[in-house]
Design goal:
single chain, mainly alpha, 3 domains, 65% helix, globular
């Protein structure tokens, strides 16, 4: 049923983009006057520059789209996180458009069907789709295509810290240089004595270890900063630094099921994700959290948990101040993640028990 509802919403949004939205842009920009809906949609969704430009125009001229920005009762909607008549918010629609654009670009430049995880484009899109969220990412999509699947998975949510094309290009170049260094270290060399060969292996191993440490350090720094956001700390009842470090370490070990079946489908912001995961960690304890949300994790339990969260209304519009209580309530109803083992009495502290 959820898939049917999702497909219906996507179809309605696509038809609206080709119809009423295209009509508004034809009025605002005479150059689009001769384009029908399908041509407008295809032209815009395949061009990063054009798509980003129209998104900026939409933000500046929202008044021209006011007849479309209404809820199910026909009331005006000015908040990007409030559902429109189609059942999705502006935030949701922007994310959908960014992902559709990425699919088209990856198909053209990386190769293969982006909807097929077995293809090159599909593997890259699958690794990246949960982080394709914001309109400012549209100009970066051509540069994202240069990232390897391994690099995207390694970076995880840190991908959203790359705000410019230059920053993405630097990451692509650094990854290429490191791959070249490893290849050189592993390449057959001229005959040498055993000591020389051993020294080369040690040097290559040290380089790889340095890369792993650097990547882990960046992710730890990223999660640490997210957890130290004032709203996040308040939602988690201002945990001490020792617990913050424990949470940071746990978040750096999230499994693929957690990223792909929980965080991505719910469309949570990083701050919302930190509150959700922090509440799970405090309720389940280190071992329980790692068993379900870590590597490799428990995919069926994660999927069931995500479904329960959706059922109680947890989404990208969730208030971080009440999100913790919602998560605790869902955890209490799930046998597979039951058996609360609060960390330092945090759950009781938050609810006043």
């Amino acid at each position: 049923m959820k898939d049917v509802e999702h497909n219906l919403a996507v179809r309605l949004i696509t038809e609206t983009l080709k119809g009423p939205v295209a009509a508004v842009f034809r009025d605002l920009i005479p150059a689009f006057g001769d384009m029908d809906g399908d041509e407008f949609y295809d032209s815009v969704l395949t061009s990063s520059d054009l798509l980003h430009g129209l998104m900026l125009i939409f933000q500046k001229r929202r008044d021209a789209f006011s007849h479309l920005l209404v809820d199910a009762q026909g009331r005006p909607v000015n908040d990007d996180f409030v559902r429109l008549r189609c059942g999705r918010s502006v935030h949701d629609i922007v994310s959908m458009i960014v992902r559709t654009h990425a699919k088209k670009h990856f198909r053209a430049t990386v190769g293969g069907d982006p909807n097929n995880p077995a293809s090159k484009a599909g593997r890259l899109y699958e690794a990246m789709n949960e982080y394709l969220i914001h309109e400012w990412q549209v100009p970066l999509v051509p540069h994202y295509a240069g990232l390897s699947v391994e690099k995207v998975r390694e970076m995880g949510p840190m991908l959203l810290e790359l705000k410019t094309a230059q920053q993405v290009a630097e990451v692509v170049a650094q990854a290429a240089n490191r791959r070249a260094e490893v290849k050189v270290a592993e390449a057959p060399a001229a005959p040498a004595n055993a000591n020389t060969h051993a020294a080369a292996l040690v040097e290559a191993r040290e380089k790889l270890e340095t890369m792993v440490v650097e990547n882990r350090s960046r992710e730890e720094e990223f999660w640490w900063e997210t957890l130290n956001d004032n709203q996040v700390r308040l939602a988690l009842s201002n945990p001490p630094d020792s617990e913050m470090r424990e949470l940071t370490a746990a978040f750096c070990q999230l499994g693929e099921a957690t990223r792909g079946e929980l965080l991505a489908p719910l469309g949570l912001s990083l701050y919302q994700a930190a509150v959700l995961l922090g509440t799970c960690y405090r309720t389940l304890g280190r071992a329980g959290f790692g068993q379900i949300f870590g590597k490799p994790g428990n995919a069926p339990a994660v999927t069931a948990f995500a479904g329960k969260l959706r059922a109680v209304g947890v989404s990208s519009r969730a208030d971080v101040r009440s999100l913790g209580r919602q998560v605790e309530g869902v955890l209490a109803t799930m046998p597979r993640v039951a058996g609360p083992r609060p960390v330092q009495g945090a759950a009781q502290k938050r609810t006043g028990r």
